[in-house]
Design goal:
mainly alpha; Tyrosyl-Transfer RNA Synthetase; three-stranded parallel β-sheet; two-stranded parallel ribbon; 12 helices; 53% helix; globular; binds adenosine-5'-tetraphosphate
Length: 339
């Protein structure tokens, strides 16, 4: 059976981008057709300045939202990264395979490091190395497919490179995974700046639709989305990015195609209104279920506890094999080598 792994960082409140780019496929497709693991990658949230209490709260909220969106713990494994030591264990080995140069080429590193410097802050070493931890997250589980939004393509490519390099140097240990992306809305853009991704760790609230935004807030944000001064509704990602973003969001929410939808509308106003309505309808059941789950804290805790146990059992053999392959002496009494 295909093994699927993907994760979400508790660096902010989850957005429509997270939902359309990743979560919805996890729920509607991946958990049904694959042996799937979905992880709150909390260690990744420590790579930029953070408030410990906030990470704690956001981790819990992310887990609750994943379940509210429809992940079913009887079909898939939902867990928190820091509950499974194998991720950090494997990450160090992969740091011994990765190079400084390839880490510095990562676009997210360059962008986030620049942002930190602009704010006058210092750049954490973990911001540079976290793509290796992400590779460990994926490789520890013998993952075949990584369903992600567009922005994670480079990190999955790095994961593939590290897997291939490790296998060549130390013997075949890892499955070489590949990224998969949704057909539409693989990169939902910020409504106020349609040339940048709708990111949850950005500060620009009005351009970001959060999964827990009230319907009137969602409507306001979408009705105020930046478009352009043209009048005709055409789908042109390069030339008309604001409009294209709305068409893609509408297409993703209604199961349509952005190109076809562009022919249906004569004004920006009616496109925005229908997009707002469609987003509100997509979020409604998630928000309702989220409210129910918030009243049942024990349930979410139980899911995460069982998920971590299952994940640990799945990851350990691969990580142990990697330790042996790279030349580290097993801790057990029967080490099976003669000196
Ligand atoms: N705007 C987006 N459009 C499509 N997919 C997206 N994803 C994120 N934003 C969009 C996908 O959601 C999954 C989880 O994302 P993440 O938690 O790893 O990262 P993030 O949301 O991009 O959050 P960051 O990096 O903390 O901050 P920002 O957002 O400010 O850069 C992934 O599959 C991702 O592709």
């Amino acid at each position: 059976m295909t093994r699927v792994f993907s994760g979400i960082k508790p660096t902010g409140h989850l957005t429509l981008g997270n939902y359309l780019g990743a979560m919805r496929r996890w729920v509607q497709v991946d958990q049904h057709r694959a042996d799937a693991l979905f992880c709150i990658v909390d260690l990744h949230a420590l790579t930029v300045e953070h408030d410990p209490a906030r990470v704690w709260r956001l981790s819990r909220q992310a887990a609750t939202l994943l379940l509210a969106a429809g992940l079913d713990p009887t079909l898939c494994t939902v867990f928190v990264q820091s509950h499974v030591d194998e991720h950090a264990r494997l990450s160090y080995l992969l740091e011994c395979v990765a190079t400084d140069g390839e880490m510095r080429r990562m676009i997210q590193y360059k962008e986030k490091a620049a942002r930190e410097r602009e704010r006058g802050g210092s750049v954490r070493l973990s911001l540079l190395t976290y793509p290796v931890l992400m590779a460990a997250d994926i490789l520890a589980y013998g993952t075949d497919e990584v369903p992600v939004g567009d922005d994670q393509t480079q990190h999955v490519e790095l994961t593939r490179d590290l897997a291939v390099r490790f296998n060549q140097r130390y013997g075949t240990t890892f499955v070489v995974p590949r990224a998969t992306h949704p057909a539409v809305a693989a990169r939902v853009m910020n409504l106020q700046d349609p040339t940048s991704k709708m990111g949850k760790s950005e500060d620009v609230g009005p351009g970001i639709v959060y999964l827990l935004d009230e319907p009137d807030v969602v409507r306001k944000k979408i009705m105020r989305a930046v478009t352009d001064s043209g009048r005709d509704v055409v789908y042109d990602r390069e030339g008309r990015p604001g409009l294209a973003n709305l068409l893609e969001i509408l297409a993703a929410c209604t199961g349509g195609n952005p190109e076809d939808l562009s022919g249906v509308y004569e004004s920006y106003g009616s496109l925005k209104k229908d997009t707002a309505d469609a987003v509100v309808e997509v979020l409604r059941p998630v928000q309702e279920r989220h409210r129910e789950l918030c009243a049942d804290a024990g349930y979410v805790e139980g899911v995460l506890r069982n998920g971590a146990e299952r994940a640990r059992a799945m990851a350990r053999p691969t990580v142990d094999a990697a330790y042996r392959a790279i030349g580290l002496l097993p801790a057990s009494a029967d080490i099976g080598v003669s000196v």
